[in-house]
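Forgive a beginner's question, but might I ask you for the amino acids of a protein and the C-alpha cells describing how it folds?
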Amino acid sequence: MSERIAKALLDIGAVELRPEDPFTWSSGMKSPIYCDNRLTMSYPAVRKEIAEGLAQLIRTHFPEAEVIAGTATAGIPHAAWVSDLLELPMVYVRSKPKNHGQGNQIEGKLIPGQKIIVIEDLISKGGSCLQAAAALKEAGADVCGVAAIFSYGLPEAEQALQGACLPYHTLTDFRALADTAEKSGKIDKNQLAGLEAWHEQFMQKS
C-alpha cells in the first residue's frame, strides 16, 4: 500500500520533488520535497484508495475508535470519507477558536470520554495534529492516536508525538516516496541521493 499511495500522489502532482531548487516551508525551512494532499480531493479513485487505507489503519491500530476528527482544513474531507466507511461520528478541529458566534474550535458533537482518532493529511513537524489533539483533550475526549496520509519522517515530529503519548500511523512516507519516484523515472539516482542527503541531516540531529 505504501508504494501504491506514493505513486498515486506522484502521478497526480500532489507531491513535487525539486532537489536542485528546494521549496521554502512556512517555517522557513528549505525542502526538496513538497506535499499538497488537497489535490487528492479532485481525483475520486485516489481519494477512495486513501480513505480505504486510512480506515484500515484505524481498524488495525485503533479498533477502539468511537469518533473520527479531521484537522482543519486539509484533514476534514478525508475524515468525512473515513467516518463514512467506518460508520462513525465525525468532528473537525479548527486551528483556533472562532472569534464570533459560539467561539467553537471543535465543530460537531463530542461527548467527553469518547475515544477519538485524528485524521491528518500529512505530518511534517507534528504541530497541527498535536494542536488538534490538545483541543480535543481539553474538551474531554480520549485521543487515541493519529492516522495520516504521509509523513516526512522527521525526528522532530517523532519526538513531539511520542512526548505527547500520541501514536501515529501513515499510509506512506518519505522513504517510500523517494524510492517510488526513482523507480518510476520521476527522478534519477543523483536526485535520489540529494533527497536522501537532505533527510539524513535531520536524522543526524536527532
